[in-house]
Prior knowledge:
Pfam families: Glyco_hydro_100. This protein is mainly alpha-helical. Helix content is 43%, strand content 9%.
Amino acid sequence: MDGTKEMGLRNVSSTCSISDMDDFDLSRLLDKPRLNIERKRSFDERSLSELSIGFTRGGLDNYESTYSPGGRSGFDTPASSTRNSFEPHPMVADAWEALRRSIVYFRGQPVGTIAAIDHASEEVLNYDQVFVRDFVPSALAFLMNGEPEIVKNFLLKTLHLQGWEKRIDRFKLGEGAMPASFKVLHDPIRKTDTLIADFGESAIGRVAPVDSGFWWIILLRAYTKSTGDLSLAETSECQKGMRLILSLCLSEGFDTFPTLLCADGCSMIDRRMGIYGYPIEIQALFFMSLRCALSMLKHDTEGKEFIERIVKRLHALRYHMRSYFWLDFQQLNDIYRYKTEEYSHTAVNKFNVIPDSIPDWVFDFMPTRGGYFIGNVSPARMDFRWFALGNCVAILSSLATPEQSMAIMDLIESRWEELVGEMPLKIAYPAIESHEWRIVTGCDPKNTRWSYHNGGSWPVLLWMLTAACIKTGRPQIARRAIDLAETRLLKDSWPEYYDGKVGRFIGKQARKYQTWSIAGYLVAKMMLEDPSHLGMISLEEDKQMKPVIKRSTSWTC
Ligand code: GLC
């Protein structure tokens, strides 16, 4: 139970933090004039890097306009709609209202948003909790609207929960584990608030959320970037919290790969779906959080050790992912012609993938132009399925090269019907059916074909798609997706997910008023309106890593 006060924030004098604050930054490139970007065709047709040509760094706008949150005119008024010149969509006001209704308070302070407020649903399960991953789009919406307080409270509250002793039966979980979700219990008689948290010990399947710690680090950077307030990330508590998360995933073991070995159901897809092993969602979030942590860790004795480990891991992880998870027409053709049973360092087919294991659908699905990071790679096993979250995060974190990022967008465009259809965005493609569904999901009735995690369409993914579109200079794709969402979301009361091959039906067991569907829509809208917000959640290709890559031999000695 939580019986303590919020930890105070110390103002630590900075040695060197948020080093990427000075990085090439979209928020600097694109400030005020961009408010009208939606109307400019030229923007659609050029990449952001092209747009940057002609702008002198630092000469565009000042630090203040980038980092100070937008002022709000009234509690219920989204600042973004008062700041721009065009009429907000009527759905925006409704979404803000619904988002504010979902706010959870702890001792009078806002600390998060509840997963769903669906009064019609008979079963609450754990949808009345504040999920770490679900809060991310809410947090971004609040940051973009100039309301950082709730985000700061959330970061501190979850950090506090990390300090709890976590057990499943007689087994103690790693110290750094962050909860999947937490709940505030109000006692109206005693007038007390207490917290309960779930680290996987109550979750269906008893799986710990590997993504929670990563999202926490990513959100800490977003908060810092958006407010310009370095003091939170610099507190010894936050520094320790980051180090604890990192110790969990940087520890040495029997691994032969730099990727992170995971149990099924350890992320947004929190049920058995055959994503065990090295799922793309986790690898992309792992990569992004390593980069975020690198920019926030202090160069003190403890921090330095982690910084060195992060740099080495990033180097290896980037190489591994870009080489072995990447699939395009050429790569598919190469795998199709692979020899098997190769031994020694000269092997081309390093993981001994048997070409016969390539599913038929991939040959039709793969366009001549385009590509993506596949779902999983491990010995003799490539999961060729498309997963939206991992691919969007790969673009945002620059795990994908600029060419790969473009190719992912090309794929989305050319496979629009399959990946977007009538409701953005398919969480995974294609669905698994029949015998395969029985074996892979263990006959999960919630994950039947084209439903829920098994090929369902999740509106929350709209914000990630929009961010990826802006980053790759293709906002027109995001606009098309948002237009689709606007035809249904409000009318259908903000469902959690849609079912069917093209996402036409409200999901079989989907909650209504699912908070991250609401927040995801708002974030997508605000980002498109003001692309400078992208800087919060995006990292440019790390230029400093390049010389290191060239001198790669130095890493082996
Ligand atoms: C479902 C989703 C999970 C989400 C939770 C709360 O379990 O699979 O990703 O965090 O609902 O919305």
